């Protein structure tokens, strides 16, 4: 049997140690983590911009012109893809799925100040004739049912100098007194031109709408309100306003 020799006791040359892997500097790990975090943040920002520009955007209701449908303090998600969102920096639009239809609620750039967003209901589409008699809307000669309308002051039918724009689009008899003297609840018929929409607020006696400042251009329509994602009562002044003043029953309600 061959002699395996005595175990090494420490005298003489020691075995060559195995080289250890160099430790990665802490600064390099931190740099790699920061780069990854920044890339994730950048991707999230790009997705946010794409969604906000072309798909869904949040809007807030600042006035009571659409009560009872929409209340002051409602926060909405608006579907921008349905009508085709505008490409930023251009007048071009992404192709939409449909055009605004009569009876739909729409968000649009206010014709007199495009920086402001308005929310109203479409009453007349291109080619329609629209009018009002005694506060009741007629489209193409027929009265339409409007269960969403709220009247707060139905007896006060007043004229307004702003109504003068209506004469240009008047489609009735030339000698009809309403051509020269339209009032809040009695006006028209008016012919809706191509590429235009006639809109009214649901709170019919307290709404600045097409009766006063004219038609909405199709290019100004931004989208269709979809759902109320948050709502609170601004007029309430309770001890815990962000808890007790929230309109819990409105959260998640679909807008019609």
Briefly, what is this?
With 256 residues, the chain is α+β, with helices and mostly antiparallel strands.
CATH H level, superfamily name: Umud Fragment, subunit A
Distance between the termini: 98 Å
The total domain count is 1
CATH fold-level assignment: Umud Fragment, subunit A
Shape: globular
Q: Secondary-structure element sequence?
A: HEEEEEEEHEEHEEH
Strand order of the largest sheet: 1-2-11-3-4-9-10
Q: Please indicate the percent range of residues in DSSP E strands (runs of 2 or more).
A: 15-25%
Classified by CATH, the class is Mainly Beta
- Looking at the overall shape, the CATH architecture is Ribbon
User: Which structural category do the helix and sheet elements fall into?
Assistant: alpha+beta
Please mark out the parts with pLDDT under 50 across 5 or more consecutive residues, or reply none.
none
Q: What kind of assembly state do the chains in view correspond to? A: single chain
Count of individual beta strands: 11
Helix proportion of residues, in percent?
10-25%
Radius of gyration: 32 Å
Which whole number gives the mean pLDDT?
85
Could you describe the largest sheet, including whether it forms a barrel? 7 strands, antiparallel
């Amino acid at each position: 049997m061959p002699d395996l020799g005595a175990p090494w006791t420490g005298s003489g040359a020691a075995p060559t140690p195995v080289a250890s892997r160099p430790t990665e500097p802490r600064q390099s790990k931190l740099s790699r983590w920061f780069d990854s975090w920044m890339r994730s943040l950048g991707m999230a920002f790009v997705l946010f911009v794409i969604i906000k520009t072309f798909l869904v955007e949040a809007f807030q209701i600042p006035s009571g012109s659409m009560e009872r449908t929409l209340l002051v303090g409602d926060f909405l998600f608006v579907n921008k893809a349905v009508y085709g969102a505008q490409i930023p920096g251009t007048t071009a639009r992404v192709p939409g799925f449909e055009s605004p239809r009569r009876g739909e609620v729409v968000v649009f750039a206010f014709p007199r100040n495009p920086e402001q967003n308005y929310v109203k209901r479409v009453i007349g589409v291109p080619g329609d004739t629209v009018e009002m008699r005694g506060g009741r809307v007629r489209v193409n000669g027929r009265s339409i049912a409007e269960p969403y309308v709220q009247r707060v002051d139905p007896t006060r039918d007043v004229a307004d100098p702003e109504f003068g724009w209506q004469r240009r689009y008047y489609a009735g008899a030339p000698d009809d007194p309403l051509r020269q003297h339209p009032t809040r609840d009695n006006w028209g018929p008016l012919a809706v031109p191509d590429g235009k929409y006639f809109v009214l607020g649901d709170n019919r006696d307290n709404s600045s709408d097409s009766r006063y400042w004219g038609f909405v251009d199709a290019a100004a329509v931004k989208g269709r309100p979809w759902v109320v994602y948050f709502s609170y009562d601004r007029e309430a002044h309770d001890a815990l306003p962000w808890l007790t003043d929230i309109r819990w029953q409105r959260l998640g309600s679909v807008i019609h």
